[in-house]
Amino acid sequence: LLIDAHAHLDHYRDDELDSVLGEIERHEIFTISTSMNGDSFRRALEIGERSRWVLPIFGVHPWHAHECAGRLAELEEATQRSPMLGEIGLDHHFVKEASLYPAQREVLEFFLAAAHAQGKIVNLHTKGAEREILELLGRFEIERAIVHWYSGPLDIFHEMAARGCCFTVGLEVLGAAHIRTIASQVPEGQLLTETDNPGAWRWLEGERGMPGHIRAVVATLAELRGTTAAAIETTVQANFARLIRDDPWLSAVREELF
Ligand SMILES: [Zn+2]
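Above are the sequence and the zinc ion SMILES. Below is the predicted complex in structure-token form.
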């Protein structure tokens, strides 16, 4: 069992989904399909109907936050319905216009309040706003967070690790020195894996990413951490099982997987 704790299956075209879901099935990749907004979540739900390996979750990505700010009540129903919340967060790196940051923050605070009230795991984008995210996790008393593709400063990484965050290492670990440093330092019990595909591989290599790329992440982690791919697979599986152990929203997932 492999774990892809951050992917965007709704970003595949309809005619690609048979091969994508076939690959997930064949490699036994439990896949958390995060959303960018409401439309994205609706499509992810439809895809989730087609495979027991896919968990669709609702969030509003920071790149879309300005579309929802001031209309948070409209997010309520999907938020209630989703067993985990993401992709949510802040982005002060790719989003250069500081005028959009208050909207990002408003939407993120809405989701963190919901996660706290409902006892849900969050799946976080932290690019260029790592310090702010760390502070918000404390303020909203978020106990279970999956920090996706962390690439920020090492001191904040260690503070997030100390507060118990899990980290998804993804495809950039194949090449980037800073990501490899982080990947080698994630505490054993907090290590998860992701592809962030189909977009991540396209961004890194110019080709559409596929679910099976998770194997390259696992192999690279094994090399960096001086162990075997099988051991990484077992560790990540155990970490995910522990993360969702008492989660009432994910009892079906537990029964299916463990
Ligand atoms: Zn993503």
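Residues 101-118 form the longest helix (18 residues).
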